[in-house]
Design brief:
The protein is an alpha/beta fold. It has 11 helices and 15 strands. The protein binds NADPH dihydro-nicotinamide-adenine-dinucleotide phosphate (NDP).
């Protein structure tokens, strides 16, 4: 017989949103956890809900949020609708006593994200943000090296996250400002979380310039270069885009005693290399790569069972959003913007 801990880790999940990320990564990541299954899916369109359910072998499909939340088999929800819907859906899930794993950006403004975190806390449910990158073996290694003082005092970081938005995702991200479109809320928000994680520091100020190269609709940015100042003095440079097919991705942290050079690390896939360069030469690290989403869901399931915190909490989601909004503000005003966490 399963013990208490095992029982409390057996979770029936409801998907709020018949999305690409759910289909490509999260259904499998949930099912990789012992005793966990996706038991229901909700889409605004009943046909899409039924088709998604059939294709992913999900027992129940709904086109109404309250119906999914009333399903007694649903103990936790994964929210991966477009960004403007996250707030009302998370508030409803919390009110129904469901644990919540929500996609980034949590919301379109900090007050809404704070409201979501507060509602989950008041309801006594776990809330997590699906920032996958901090689950990567590469970023965990960088975090460990920085924390152990391997590069001395960290001074600068650089993030290379200019990628090409695949054709099948060239929808609302490019033409629906009300859904939180644009590269900053899509990609910069991940950079912000990853840098907070690897540096164990908080962004306090941002500058940036956005580009409109014509992939996104007029008035919406499809590329950005930004600078963040952290509370430990680190300056970080970010380059994010939807429009660049061949740059490759990377993250570097440069300190007083050495540099960490990571390549092919701003990605959903469990790949990438991390090298430490210092006066002794170069050391490349052997990493045990693991599916980032599987690892993230495992931490969530453990948190539901009372064991530790999710990989990225609701508060982490508030902070990455606040940082991305400061970059947007700076890129629009042409002046440095404070990161406002409240
Ligand atoms: P999708 O465009 O695939 O899905 C978003 C919503 O669009 C769905 O909830 C669905 O609405 C609707 N939709 C999906 N397919 C169709 C279609 N063929 N016709 C009409 N409507 C459709 O978005 P993503 O999966 O790319 O992103 C969803 C969320 O996940 C966003 O918040 C995004 O920022 C986040 N994300 C996070 C990633 C990560 O690694 N953490 C990676 C990718 C995205 P309905 O549910 O009503 O059917």
């Amino acid at each position: 017989m399963a013990g208490e801990g095992e029982l409390s880790k057996a979770i029936g999940w409801g998907l709020i949103g018949a999305s690409t990320i759910a289909r490509e990564w999260m259904v499998e990541a949930i099912r990789a956890q012992p005793g966990n299954d996706v038991v229901a899916v909700m889409s605004a369109d009943p046909d899409r809900a039924r088709t998604f359910a059939a294709e992913c072998r999900i027992a129940a499909s709904y086109s109404n949020l309250q119906a999914l939340l009333a399903d007694p088999k649903v103990r936790a929800v994964y929210v991966s609708t477009t960004n403007e819907l996250h707030r009302p859906q998370v508030l409803a899930a919390a009110a129904a006593g469901k644990h919540v794993l929500c996609e980034k950006p949590l919301a379109l403004d900090v007050a809404a994200a704070r409201e979501m975190v507060a509602a989950c806390a008041a309801a006594g449910v776990v809330m997590a943000t699906n920032h996958h990158l901090r689950n990567a073996a590469t970023h965990r290694k960088i975090h460990e090296l920085v924390a152990a003082g391997a590069i001395g005092r960290p001074l600068f970081a650089r993030v290379f996250h200019a990628v090409y938005l695949p054709a099948h995702l060239q929808g609302w991200r490019l033409n629906r400002p009300g859904a939180g479109a644009g590269v900053v809320l899509d990609i910069t928000v991940h950079d912000a979380d990853t840098l907070r994680f690897v540096l164990s520091a908080e962004p306090i100020e941002a500058t940036g310039m956005a580009q409109h190269a014509g992939m996104a609709e007029a008035g919406l940015e499809d590329g950005v270069m930004a600078l963040l100042r952290f509370d430990n003095g680190v300056l970080a440079q970010l380059h994010d885009a939807f429009t660049v097919a061949h740059a490759g991705t990377g993250l570097e942290v440069h300190g007083s005693e050495g540099s960490i050079i990571a390549r092919n690390v701003m990605t959903q896939r469990p790949v990438g290399e991390v090298t430490l360069r210092n006066a002794d030469g170069e050391t490349a690290f052997a990493l045990e790569h693991e599916n980032l989403y599987v690892r993230g869901v495992r931490a969530f399931v453990q948190a539901v069972a009372g064991e530790g915190q999710p990989a990225a909490t609701g508060e982490d989601g508030v902070r990455s959003l606040a940082t991305a909004l400061a970059v947007l503000e700076a890129s629009k005003s042409g002046r440095a913007a404070k990161v406002r966490y409240q």
